Amino acid sequence: MEFNESTYADEASQKGMEKQWSICEKIMKEVAESAIGMQGPPQRNDWFDDECTAATSLKNKAYKNVSQEEYKVGERRISKKEV
Question: Is the pTM of this model over 0.90?
Fold first, then answer.
């Protein structure tokens, strides 16, 4: 890549645009915060209750057991091939 006056002008233009965007972004955030205030992330769904948590836990345990069994079967197949 050649560097010439045009390259430096492009870089200066890019930095100028970044600075303008930074100022604009800061102003928008300040105005939004003063208008509606700072808001945290939305709360989790009300429908996901203890029953859902228990069902998810059972599903995860079942998946883990199946995965471990598949691993053991694969190990047995490999050990039989080696003999």
Answer: no
